[in-house]
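Protocol step 4 of 5: obtain the predicted structure for the target chain.
Materials: sequence only (see below). No template structures provided, no constraints applied. The aim of this step is simply to have a reference model before the mutagenesis design in step 5. Sequence pasted as it appears in the construct record:
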Amino acid sequence: MKKICKNCKYWISGDELGWTGNWKKFGKCACKKFQYLGLDEGNVDSIIDSVIKAAKSDELLFIDFEYYNADFYTGENFGCIHFKPKEK
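Step 4 output (structure tokens):
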């Protein structure tokens, strides 16, 4: 089995999300190693420093500095070190 998103238990396919057209080959990852950090006003540098200090080196942090929305999508053939096979 290839260690790619479409075979991973963390991946939610575009089909499952109700996406259409070319979006169907993409999806979202539900792995806890990928952390969203929404920041509004305040001591942003201090908050980022504390999050980075606590984060592990195998994590993905994606940050929105206006605390509006940030997301990432992966193609069905993308792969990463956090792959876990889907349960049958």
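Step 4 remarks: Residues 7 and 85 are 6 Å apart (CA to CA). The first strand starts at residue 11 and ends at 13.
Proceed to step 5.
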